Amino acid sequence: MKHRILPQDVTAGMFICGFGGGWLNHPFWVKRFEVKPRHLRRLAESAVPFVIIDDEKGPGPAEAAQDSPSTASASAQARPCDDGKESIRPLRSRKPGGPSRGSYSAAPARNSKRAEAKRLLARSLAVTRETFANIRSGKPIRMAEVSDVVEDIVGSTAQCPRALLEVLRLKQKDEYTYLHSVAVCTLMINVARQLGKDEAEVFDYGLAGLFHDLGKMCVDQAILDKPGSLDEAEFDAVRTHPIQGYDILARTSGVPAIALDVCRHHHERPDGKGYPSGLSGAELSEAARLGAICDVYDALTSDRAYKDAWSPSKAMTAMWGWEGQFDRELLFAFMQSVGVYPEGLVVELDGDRLGLVLAPRSDGQRSRVLVFFCTATGRPIAAKDASTAGKRDSVAILAPADPQAYGIAPELCSEAHLRGVEWTRKPVATLAV
């Protein structure tokens, strides 16, 4: 049964499924979640008139009152919520591969989402800058503030996965040190959700992303800002940052193991050529391998003191081609989470088809696909452009494909060939050279 209670009567463990008032009035980005201790202060200070809880998914008001005298008013204030018409709006149907948390039908317009993303980015920047400054001066990390920011980023990406990523791509060179950490946090959250992690893991992955470069605060700022190539001594100094960051986090209470792992190992490689420990293969956790992917992708697509930003398509094409540097399966999952794929890659599509990934029409847009083959019939089809943007008539990319497995010579899989050849319904073997 659902109950309406006052915000100050909410206790940890309850499951919130709605708020009174408007969408922008409550202090969270999502409206369905289990209450953690860190949520209580923000909830008590909010302006919402009431909160709706579900006693089938967590404690009800009577249970909370028995557990804590301070919440004794809960049972008196609570009353059943029979139909929820005043405060609960119907859920949209979830698209395949979409976020696991509920989304509500009265979502703000795109411009509002972008404005919310900019406000969240500004707050994230301020907290990250303060956190890094405290580390430089030997002060402790304020985990409550950092956790609040990560929590809001988790909620933001659940509501509108692309809004914050689009705003983050506009970061300036002088903000890179701080916003790179926010960007990697966002990318880690995005790909963790793509992999089907539960919300607690998604939060931990986000925190790991925010903290991954913490150790750079122990490196001379002049080295970090150097516009040219680093000499050997400078590079050796930079290579200490994973251990330096790990040591700082190890002394901080409340830091999850995933964050420690990613901080220490995000520069390791599956082929063993990374640092600081030269780990390889199964020695590297999934989280550390994802941290490496998110870190490099954001670095490549950002303006730096020594280089201009690459387009997402160029960065992904390069990363897919760097043999041994990344876990290929996880790299593909990352591509799915951001909607960008290597140009020229042959992929399996929904609807029993193969497609060739094309460059986006403009920088920052999702990849396009040239559909050219039906795997159900084993025959070519007339080449057709398709979008991967999740709109009507778009296609879903499922996995990388080996064209030779379908009797197609790889050298025939080019845009020029597929557009220039008159495809027929002859046996596929005629396509081989």
From TrEMBL:
CDD domains: HDc. Residues 67-76 have a biased composition (Polar residues). Residues 155-350 form the HD-GYP domain. InterPro entries: DUF3391, HD/PDEase_dom, HD_GYP_dom. Residues 58-115 are annotated as: Disordered. Residues 80-89 have a biased composition (Basic and acidic residues). This is HD-GYP domain-containing protein. The lineage of its organism: Bacteria, Pseudomonadati, Pseudomonadota, Alphaproteobacteria, Sphingomonadales.
